[in-house]
Fold:
Amino acid sequence: KRQPPAAAAPPSSAPCQPRTILRTEPRKAAGPASKAAPKQETFTRMPQGLVKYWMSLTNGRRYPSWSDFDPKLIAEYWPNSMQLTSSRDEDSEVTIAQVTRIADQGSPAPTGSKRVEYTPALTEWILSLGKEAAHSGKPMQESDRFPTSEGIVRYQIILLPLSDTQSGIDHVLCHVYRA
Structure:
């Protein structure tokens, strides 16, 4: 006899909750061909292209390493991306030790997109979500509105955890863009 499906959990009443956008279980390595570098033309300039690129570099691991990435490709395809270097103290509290811009404001924006205005509120949001992604080890996508010199602007962010040792998150690849 079939059992009725379990009731779904009620949706959270808190607005703008971070959403996990990918599964994070390791993929099975497909063999020698899976170690080949991905072809640049397989990735779109849209933000989800960065997610596809991240997934292509896992090679049977839970997370790719920062050394797997091509910073020039990221700078060309996904301007306004940055690498957040994270660390944990003895109480397992995550801190962002360093932020490294991969593409600067002078890089060409993808078709139809506009420049990101890094206000103090936007910067705090990026760092806060970066800590959360480093702590949870889960890829995230989030959006929120911020005051800028042009008025209120909605930004989106994609955060992708990276690990050199596979024993903890040591970097988060972060892409910010106007929604």
